[in-house]
Specification:
By secondary structure, this protein is α/β, with parallel strands linked by helices. Helices cover about 45% and strands about 15% of the residues.
């Protein structure tokens, strides 16, 4: 038993070490590093709790009857100390988000937001959420599921609508696009903390599925997302939403698709059969996305171009059609009339390059006439906001403030009185 406890303690300490030093530059270890660091870096208190309980039972079974057990206990104590130190690092993300918003919008952006906008301070979560960070249901939100957004569409052409139980009119709308490497994922799995929060505050939120590779070939993924946006334009007023105000968001592959959707409004290549549909959005909030399928600047630690995107998503070799990779890349679709952007990425992301996100935001700022906010979150892994955590709650509050600012500006422009002509 002492040797077993030593081995388990060393294994737990390895998870803690990985949370601080993720293997971002290793093409073979980046996925295991993500899997090991994802829950550890976002739920350190939960990890300490279950390890303390396990230690209690192992000690009762004789784990400290020999020197290996005492060494294991020492390793565990050091590991727990550093796990708990993750908490203030996560808490600092609130300041990072606020500083990013002030830099990207203006120091005075709060004065331009509607009075009930949230602050950067995150209230303590309810006990049931603190214990179970995967609990998302809100009694103030009703969800209508599996609405078809394509006539005669398949099972993947369905969406869910999150709406306040209290009736609303002309409410702002959020379109959430799930991730999953363009090959998996579901609308019921991602963006839930953000959608429930915004719906509680009077928003209408829409989460859509889309066709997946390898059965689907790009651009079918983005075509489906644009069809979901076209559905919002024609149908969301039935749920109390304003069809003229839509913010798009998504994480990972959803970050790529949300950014691409925002930068390709009206592109007929991505709107076959509905070329005249209005596919503009008022703002985009991509989380930890992939922004350059061509990897032209060699910013990806693990390039997906030749061994994943080419054979499974685009289904054409890069050497045969490099322009296809560029057209599918938000980085190469940047233009002056891009909507406001809020780009969010963790500096410990082992799956999608933070360097690429940083460069994408920089290029947006140099070209777009609209504000660009870039928040690089210390210690955050890929998919950090899929469940409740400190960073998740700070991210949700920050997106709320950004979206509220965009909506306030939209309302001001809409309500502005135009002087009558002489």
């Amino acid at each position: 038993m002492p040797w077993i406890y030593l081995a388990l303690s060393a294994w737990g300490a390895l998870f803690t070490y990985n949370a601080y030093v993720p293997r971002r530059a290793s093409r073979f270890l980046n996925l295991p590093s993500f899997l090991a660091g994802w829950l550890t870096s976002e739920l350190p208190v939960h990890h300490v709790a279950w390890q303390v309980i396990a230690t209690f039972f192992l000690v009762a079974m004789g784990a400290l009857s020999g020197w290996p057990g005492w060494l294991g206990l020492g390793i565990s104590l050091v590991s727990w100390f550093y796990l708990l130190k993750i908490v203030p690092i996560a808490r600092a993300s609130g300041l990072v988000f606020e500083a990013s918003l002030r830099e990207g919008v203006s120091d005075r952006y709060r004065g331009e937001i509607l009075p009930d906008a949230p602050t950067e301070r995150v209230p303590a979560p309810p006990v049931e959420i603190a214990i179970n960070p995967f609990r998302f249901r809100s009694p103030a939100v009703q969800v209508t599921r599996d609405i078809s957004y394509v006539p005669d569409g398949g099972a993947r052409n369905r969406l869910d609508v999150f709406a306040p139980r209290e009736k609303v009119e002309n409410a702002p709308v959020l379109l959430q696009i799930h991730g999953g490497g363009w090959t998996m994922g579901n609308k019921k799995e991602q963006g839930l903390a953000l959608m429930n929060h915004l719906s509680e505050r009077g928003w209408i939120c829409v989460a859509n599925n889309y066709r997946l590779s390898p059965a689907a070939t790009f651009p079918e993924h983005i075509i489906d997302c644009k069809r979901a946006l076209a559905w919002i334009r024609s149908e969301i007023d039935n749920f109390g939403g304003d069809p003229d105000f839509v913010v798009v968001t998504g994480g990972s592959a959803g970050g790529h698709l949300s950014a691409l959707l925002a930068l390709t409004a009206g592109d007929p290549e991505y709107q076959p059969g509905f070329e005249n549909a209005d596919t503009r959005v008022n703002a985009a909030v991509p989380f930890y996305g992939v922004y350059d399928w061509s990897d032209a600047n060699r910013l990806q630690a693990m390039s997906m171009r030749d061994n994943f995107i080419a054979p499974r998503i685009l289904k054409v070799p890069y050497a045969q059609d490099p322009e296809a990779f560029r057209r599918a890349s938000p980085l190469h679709r940047i233009h002056a009339d891009a909507p406001p952007f809020f780009v969010i990425h963790g500096d410990s992301d082992t799956l999608c390059s933070v360097e690429e996100a940083r460069f994408f935001a920089q290029q947006l700022r140099e070209t777009s006439k609209e504000p660009v906010v870039y928040a690089e979150i210390p210690g955050a892994q890929h998919a950090f906001e899929v469940f409740h955590s400190l960073r998740t709650d700070y991210a949700v509050q920050a997106v709320d403030r950004f979206a509220s600012w965009v909506h306030s500006r939209y309302r001001s422009e809409k309500e502005r009185v135009v002087p009558a002509a002489d």
